[in-house]
């Protein structure tokens, strides 16, 4: 079941929560809505679910929600065939795990309600699927947070939704549990292929889990793309800053027809540290701090001419080879940089040019 949202506006009083959002989600994909708190993710998800409605408009094409090409804008939530999981497990406290999972089926009208045996079989199957086969008789308070979210997911899946909507489902859990559940959700999705939209403010979660990432900021969509694309080819300063660590440096761009001083973005893993100068544009830096953990080390540097801070991520072997000490002078070359002059973007993978863009006296 594909999902399409057309030019959705949503105001709460004076406040604009969504400002003309359009989006297509292909059938069977796992899509992440990623953005900072307050960017409109939950509002968009609730409008897709039918729990909230877009502002009315004179243009009949605006504010529409389509499932599989069919307009469902006026269809209430209960009739959209949507499964929902929220951040705070909304399990029924007085019902067992099995009763919780069975709930959506057991409240159906007599004509569509499966038999008791069919419901019990379906519940057993779902509990196995979320790896809680032995926990059917427990009450929610006898489970861990991660287990409760898996029950919530089983309950959402019980009614065989055509669309699964998850709003920060792991948001309230510990970092390690979140990571485990993330992988588990990915493998579950690969088994079931239910079209899924997943809200998160955690960029790592979005990049690791989703087929497609929708980056939201201030009521608008900034970029839609596969994780690799939004990470490697961010469309705006907001996206590059939101998705992972990035250094900001002033660039000298006189001949690019942009203001003489613009911001140049470099990912820490694109900062190559050298002991000695290797080219005329190498930036001179001082080592402020070296931290080594696992296969990578983090080096905090300071650019000598401007005092700007610069983070570098260096493979451990290379770090050993460099044997940097606090206070050392060194040089850096950039492997890849990105800038956004006048709303466009400019990037280069040529280290000579990339480094030169930050050089004090340079213009191209
Ligand atoms: P996100 O999920 O990205 O954090 P939301 O969609 O929940 O963002 O909210 C976007 C903005 O709209 C927030 O600033 C929030 O305060 C506001 N908002 C959301 N729902 C309501 C509401 N029912 N009434 C008033 N303001 C709301
Ligand atoms: Mg939210």
Question: Which structural category fits the helices and strands?
Answer: alpha+beta
Whole-number count of domains: 2
String of helices and strands: EEEHEEEHHHEHEHEEHHEEEEEEHEEEH
Which CATH first-tier class of the largest domain would you pick? Alpha Beta
CATH architecture label of the largest domain? 3-Layer(aba) Sandwich
Q: Whole-number radius of gyration?
A: 25 Å
Task: Tell me about this structure.
The chain is of the alpha+beta class and 364 residues long. The chain has two domains: 3-234, P-loop containing nucleotide triphosphate hydrolases (Rossmann fold, 3-Layer(aba) Sandwich); 247-361, RNA polymerase II/Efflux pump adaptor protein, barrel-sandwich hybrid domain (OB fold (Dihydrolipoamide Acetyltransferase, E2P)), CATH 2.40.50.100. It is built from ten helices and 19 strands. It has a six-stranded mixed beta sheet with strand order 6-7-8-3-9-10, with helices on both faces. A five-stranded antiparallel beta sheet has the order 13-17-14-15-16. Strands 2-1-4-5 form a four-stranded antiparallel beta sheet, with helices on one face. A hairpin with a 5-residue loop joins strand 15 (296-303) and strand 16 (309-315). Helix 2 (97-106) packs across helix 3 (116-129). The protein is globular, with a radius of gyration of 25 Å. The model has no long low-confidence stretch (mean pLDDT 90).
